[in-house]
TrEMBL record:
<dbReference type="InterPro" id="IPR052698">
    <property type="entry name" value="MoCofactor_Util/Proc"/>
</dbReference>
<dbReference type="Pfam" id="PF02625">
    <property type="entry name" value="XdhC_CoxI"/>
</dbReference>
<dbReference type="Pfam" id="PF13478">
    <property type="entry name" value="XdhC_C"/>
</dbReference>
<dbReference type="InterPro" id="IPR027051">
    <property type="entry name" value="XdhC_Rossmann_dom"/>
</dbReference>
<dbReference type="InterPro" id="IPR003777">
    <property type="entry name" value="XdhC_CoxI"/>
</dbReference>
<feature type="domain" description="XdhC- CoxI">
    <location>
        <begin position="11"/>
        <end position="70"/>
    </location>
</feature>
<protein>
    <submittedName>
        <fullName>Xanthine dehydrogenase</fullName>
    </submittedName>
</protein>
<feature type="domain" description="XdhC Rossmann">
    <location>
        <begin position="109"/>
        <end position="149"/>
    </location>
</feature>
Length: 151
């Protein structure tokens, strides 16, 4: 599962790694990788419903491009849900906390015109994490030497 997560990151594919950081000792460190289509790899070591609940929570953070923690209550019901685990009982005694680390491709910035102002804009865009591309019809101006931060 971790190999799948690393492979996705290296390919620039979006994904969210959800790991149990607080809860029952037997679940600590268990993880799953959630993809944008809702599919997931791995498991938390509990019930299938727990994995689906965790995948849904991680998918919501992935969609927003955010990293953070998510609390899963003992009955698996979310703040806006009345669902419970199989048979209505607790499927994770005491509940648990997930650390969800989202990895999404950087946003694109396209700069038209290879002028001095564009050089400053490219540096700023790269600093902010953008995938920057410079476009100019004059190939002598749009060079790697003038814009080393762009692609």
């Amino acid at each position: 599962m971790l190999r799948a997560a690393l492979t996705a990151v290296l390919r620039g594919e979006p994904g969210a790694l959800a790991r149990v950081v607080d809860g029952p000792a037997e679940l600590l460190g268990k993880s799953l990788l959630v993809r944008p289509d809702g599919s997931y790899v791995g498991g938390l070591g509990g019930t299938a419903e727990l994995d689906r609940t965790a995948a849904g929570a991680a998918g919501a953070l992935l969609e927003a491009g955010r990293t953070g923690t998510v609390a899963v209550p003992a009955d698996g019901a979310g703040p806006d849900s009345s669902r419970t685990g199989p048979g209505g009982g607790a499927y994770c005694p005491g509940g648990l906390t997930l650390l969800v680390e989202s990895s999404v491709p950087p946003p694109r910035m396209i700069v038209f015109g290879a002028i001095d102002f564009a050089a400053a804009l490219v540096r700023t865009g790269k600093f902010l994490g953008y995938h920057v591309t410079v476009c100019d019809a004059r190939p002598v101006f749009a060079t790697r030497a003038r814009f080393p931060e762009s692609l």
